[in-house]
Design brief:
With 138 residues, the protein is an alpha+beta fold. 42% of the residues lie in helices and 19% in strands. A three-stranded antiparallel beta sheet has the order 3-4-5. A two-stranded antiparallel sheet has the order 1-2. Strand 1 and strand 2 form a beta hairpin.
Length: 138
């Protein structure tokens, strides 16, 4: 997160703070009256398809990976400010992961040694099961 409140995903991609919607709620769980009344949990959401910061291909990549609306929540800290920072950082990490280029999978074949080991294991397992059988009556 920058000084001006925008979120930097990578060197050439920055999401302005106006496109990130922050909502505060009460934190769940035990903690007595303070936890039940304090608005410390922060939910950050980002509408990827409506963003001006992303290109069309980036919008599609984010929507395919995370859906059209990306959300992140933080309630780890007692302070709303710390939770706000944590939620925005989590949102940035999610977006960075979704926008990372995917390396194509290369098809591989098992090695000759792997094939031999597989067949040897199958034969050993068969011999073990054969020893468990009831002996044949003559």
């Amino acid at each position: 997160m920058n000084e001006n409140g925008s979120l930097t995903i990578r060197s050439k991609l920055t999401i302005p703070s106006a496109e990130i919607v922050l909502r505060v709620t009460t934190s769940g769980g035990p903690g007595g009256q303070h936890a039940n009344r304090s608005l410390t949990r922060v939910v950050a959401s980002f509408h990827a398809l409506d963003s001006n910061a992303l290109s069309e291909s980036e919008k599609q990549r984010v929507a395919d990976a995370l859906g059209p609306v990306v959300r992140s929540s933080a309630s780890r800290f007692r302070s709303q400010g710390q939770n706000r920072t944590a939620a925005i950082e989590q949102l940035g990490e999610k977006l960075a992961l979704a926008l990372a280029p995917r390396t194509p999978r290369r098809a591989t074949k098992p090695t000759k040694g792997a094939k031999i080991r597989r067949v040897d294991e199958k034969k050993a397992r068969g011999r073990l099961k054969e020893q468990r059988r009831r002996p044949l009556e003559d």
